[in-house]
Specification:
- By secondary structure, this protein is an all-alpha fold.
- Helix content is 65%, strand content 0%.
- The chain has two domains: 133 residues, no CATH class; 169 residues, no CATH class.
- Helix 3 packs across helix 4 and helix 7 runs antiparallel to helix 12.
């Protein structure tokens, strides 16, 4: 928590400096693609007269609030868990870590990349991770239990779906595009994507497969107890929050990202920027957005069922009675 507090104070100071006229580390590029010159200058960041309220004083206030939550979490009080978890989820949303998995490998491969924006988003992920590792349940007087309650059938089906959707809806079409097959996209779009270095194409194609494999842990024994073959930590119980908070955050991000894609496509249809025939011919884009929503919903159900299956009964009872658990 001390790490989260100090990083948040530093980020608050940077936003305050931006509001006062400094442009150190500032980028005006947003989330759009950049050229080599734009990546070097932050899209002309030095020429920006006003960074705006969100990047200035509001940003400073937000990071001060995150720092205050982190400092309060240093004290083991029950009520601080909710604001800490809410803060963690907000940080995951604003940092957009799913895109970082693609943008960082693409940037390292030599493509023009807005490293200033990526650096600040990565720091937000670090702060969220520090909050995750620092949150503790104060009422339980024992170590993390390893409940033997199996995941419900609904939870098992949801986890299987959450692991299958990214493989079918993302890895398979992207792998076909790497091989030169325009599956569900136009040849022009295929040509634009294939100019990326091979390392970047591999990272973009297979990163979701890593998430799919990790989601299987929700329904597998190694999601509750570290395998014995792992040196130093083998046999230890997996902290619930290490599964619940990232799982819930990723599920939310996936669903929101997919819904945002639907909204953008609906907007383009209404404004005439695209047509139904164009969406049908490029069906891979539409189905990918659908897959994100399904993936997020399935993962969310799996996380909820994991939470129920791994809940410590004595601690749950103590929370309702106000008395400490064993």
């Amino acid at each position: 928590m001390l790490t989260a507090a100090l990083l948040s104070l530093g980020l608050a100071a940077v936003h305050a400096a931006w509001a006062l006229g400094s442009r150190w580390g500032y980028s005006a590029c947003g989330f759009r693609s950049v050229t080599a010159e734009q990546s070097r200058t932050g899209c002309g960041a030095r020429a920006v007269d006003d960074v705006g309220f969100l990047d200035g004083w509001a940003g400073m206030g937000g990071w001060l609030l995150v720092s205050a939550v982190a400092v309060r979490c240093l004290a083991p009080v029950p009520w601080v868990r909710l604001p800490a978890i809410a803060t963690l989820l907000v940080l995951l949303v604003i940092s957009f870590p799913l895109h970082l998995l693609f943008e960082i490998p693409v940037g390292l491969s030599g493509e023009p990349t807005d490293w200033r924006r990526i650096a600040f988003r990565s720091l937000a992920v670090v702060v969220a991770s520090a909050l995750l590792l620092g949150v503790r349940r104060p009422r339980c007087g024992h170590g993390p239990p390893v409940p033997s309650v199996p995941l419900s059938r609904r939870g098992q089906h949801a986890v299987t779906l959450a692991a299958t959707v990214p493989l079918v809806a993302w890895v398979v079409p992207h792998l076909s595009w790497m091989c030169g097959l325009a599956l569900g996209i136009s040849p022009d779009v295929l040509a634009d994507g294939r100019h990326l270095p091979l390392a970047a194409q591999v990272a973009i194609t297979f990163s979701p497969a890593v998430g799919a494999a990790l989601s299987l842990g929700i329904a597998r024994p190694w999601g509750r107890q570290v395998p014995g073959w792992m040196p130093g930590i083998g046999g230890r119980a997996v902290p619930r929050l290490l599964v619940l908070l990232p799982g819930a955050g990723v599920a939310l991000l996936l669903a929101v990202y997919g819904l945002f894609g639907w909204i953008m496509m609906g907007h383009d249809l209404m404004t005439g920027e695209t047509s139904v025939s164009a969406l049908v011919s490029g069906w891979a884009v539409f189905t990918t957005e659908v897959a994100f929503v399904v993936w997020g919903a399935a993962l969310g159900i799996g996380v909820l069922e994991y939470a129920r299956a791994t809940r410590c009964t004595p601690c749950a009872a103590s929370s309702s009675t106000g008395r400490p658990g064993p």
